[in-house]
Amino acid sequence: MADPLPAVKRIQKIRPVGGKLTNIPANHKERLVAKYHGVCHIEGPGFEKKLSLTFDDGPSNLTEPLLDLLTSLGVKATFFWLGRNVKEFVNLGRRAYAEGHTFGNHSFDHPDFTKIGTDGVLREQIRKTQLIYRDTLGIEPSLVRPPFGKVTDEQVETLKHLGMKIVFWSIDSEDWIAENNSAASISNRVVRILHEEAIILMHDGGSASRDTIKAVRSIITSCKARGYEFVTVHDLIGAEKSLS
Ligand SMILES: [Zn+2]
Known about the structure:
Number of strands: 9
Order of helices and strands: HEEHEHHEHEHEEHEHEH
Oligomer: single chain
Structural class: alpha/beta
CATH superfamily: Glycoside hydrolase/deacetylase
Number of helices: 9
Largest sheet: 6 strands, parallel
Distance between the termini: 32 Å
Number of domains: 1
Radius of gyration: 16 Å
CATH topology: TIM Barrel
CATH class: Alpha Beta
Bound molecules: zinc ion
């Protein structure tokens, strides 16, 4: 059989994920990607100059100006939203959908999956959010991003059984850090470790601020100047937009 290591081909070039909230040892994600090849993803499978911008924890009041910016720059992104917030900001969800962005399940209200076991609560967090997406946008996302990127092997098995793929990231913009952060530092952090088929983690909810939006403008401009194009995670890894 093929060596599973190519699935994590470039992770050595990427510094370990830093910060308190997302401080998952890089080797844990690498191990999951290798063990669940084609199910767990931290980046795209190839070496094309493509990137995916992903935004977690929304929708929120930040989402509208973010959509304005993405539209003005002609970029499609992927949103990993919380069921709770999709329910609250129905019109923003519909607008993002109409403008061609794609979506993943980020749970209903952001628990640490590793503290909620494998069956009842996990399934409820996923199911409730899938139903809200279905009621709001008419889709059931095929992608899930566990809050904090934390998930156990058993939970990966459960999600796989539901037909879902798990999406982590290869570049953390750390836009969620409130202190000593700025649009320039967020943008520099991303551009410094840019690589082919990277999945970039950002936020349009939670503790993210307008700095994220300013940083997005700068990231898109810098990356396009370096010859990269932006695609949705679905296009990057070859996933269906909806399970049904
Ligand atoms: Zn989150």
